[in-house]
Amino acid sequence: MDFKTNKPIYQQIVDFCFSKILTREWTAGERIVSVRELSTQLAVNSRTVLKAYEYLQAEDIIYPERGMGFYLSKDAMKKVMKIQKKEFFENQLADLFSIMDLLGISIDEITERYNKLKNSSS
Q1: CA distance 15 to 24
Q2: CA 110, 103, 100, 95 torsion-angle sign
Q3: Domains of the chain and any CATH numbers
Q4: Mean pLDDT, to the nearest integer, of 33-56?
Q5: How far apart are CA 87 and CA 79, in angstroms?
Q6: 48 — phi, psi (to 5°)?
Q7: Phi, psi of 121 (to 5 degrees)
Q8: Angle between the 35-42 and 9-22 helix axes, to the nearest 10 degrees?
């Protein structure tokens, strides 16, 4: 987690969970770590982890099984991608465009660099 950010800790935990989902460390239908386990792992209060899990539950990314813990929804990946894309376009891209403008970087330069990086990683 990145404690240097302005995001509340519970939102950083949500982002941590999103990362686990997007990297397929957590897979659909499987039980995820308990609130207690994650609070110990991240060294945060369990109520803060619970708040993050409540958010994930409200977004239908995880669901509880009585007495068994929380499980990842079958379409969690799609839902996380939708949320993350919205965040990217509304926040990060605007910041990136501001920096590009300050540095005089054109969209063509970005496209060229993007294509080079994409081709070198293939």
Answers
A1: 14
A2: positive
A3: 7-74 (1.10.10.10), 75-119 (1.10.287)
A4: 97
A5: 13
A6: -70, -40
A7: -90, -10
A8: 100
| Residue 30 three-state SS | coil
Distance separating alpha carbons of residues 36 and 46, to the nearest angstrom:
6
- In this prediction the pTM is 0.80
| Integer Cα distance of 10 and 53 in angstroms | 9
Q: Provide the 8-state DSSP code for 26.
A: S
Work out the end-to-end distance of the chain between its first and last CA atoms, rounded to an integer number of angstroms.
Answer: 29
Q: What is the mean pLDDT of residues 57-86?
A: 96
Query: Which two tokens mark 89?
Result: 């376009």
40 and 78 Cβ atoms separated by less than 8 Å: no
Residue 119: count other Cβ atoms within 10 Å of its Cβ.
Answer: 8
63 close to 57: Cβ distance less than 8 angstroms: yes
C-beta separation of 21 from 10 below 8 A: no
